[in-house]
């Protein structure tokens, strides 16, 4: 859909409008009574969410590409149908194809103080080339003072569908050196910065002193990011997600400036590795993350 038809079908005066970058990416601009947000149709990529009276909750790199076919560095990339590298011996883009495909906006409505948006993705030429031609995705965002992101996967095939998935959320923090994350204390993890070694549970809140890329499996725990320098707490609760990934590269990347990595932390709502989903024919799987923000007053 182009901007004119999106506007005709879905615009809500003062709440939801549609725009386009010079590079041709269409995005939805959201202003609810309690928050603002930006969502790109490419990847159904939530690139900003800011409750009224708060600093932006999501980090987006100032060096990010905003180009057709290139992932955005920050916000909430959706990884599907694999997480990070494809590991069935075939080649494919990092984190799968969903974050670089154009999704369809299917529904938009303001209910109370929250804007509800639903984006869908069906097989595309690219997904078929990668061997995925029998799935349906629906991504529901509930945008307000809190944020709910729900990714539903349906299997249209006659055979089981195996997939990994992630709501690869980049949080904006003032200084990652002063952040602690609670919720993962009892959980062992795979350390991707140390040759995928399995490490025992730390039994202590997570702090950050170097490159961090950890896959915590078999955990449904709510995580809390305590951003001491930002004087706020971000709570990430989740449903039907058994993996949490925590990531900070601790260095610049092609699309992340040298002065930027200390302003971000990914705490990702995932099903991957041992928690890869096997979805029976005709079934649907739905994973949800619910984000809330509070000021630390003292
Ligand atoms: O550079 P990307 O493809 O966006 O991936 C960024 C990161 O995503 C996840 O957090 C993975 O665990 C990391 O290993 C990966 O580096």
Main beta-sheet annotation: 9 strands, antiparallel
Poorly predicted runs are: none
Compute the separation of the termini in Å. Answer: 48 Å
Count of helical regions:
2
**CATH level-two architecture:** Distorted Sandwich
Count of beta strands: 23
Order of helices and strands: HEEEEEEEHEEEEEEEEEEEEEEEE
Looking across the biggest beta sheet, what order are the strands in? 6-7-8-9-23-19-18-13-16
Mean pLDDT: 97
What is the percent of helical residues? under 10%
Domain count, please report it. 1
Beta-strand residue percentage: 35-45%
Gyration radius, to the nearest Å?
Answer: 18 Å
CATH level 1 name: Mainly Beta
The set of bound ligands, ions and cofactors reads: 6-O-phosphono-alpha-D-glucopyranose
Going by helix content, strand content and strand pairing, the class is mainly beta
**Morphology call:** globular
Task: Examine the coordinates and then state which fold CATH places here, giving the name of the CATH topology.
Answer: Beta-galactosidase, Chain A, domain 5
GO molecular function: carbohydrate binding; glucose-6-phosphate 1-epimerase activity
Keywords: Isomerase
Pfam family, one: Aldose_epim
EC number: 5.1.3.15
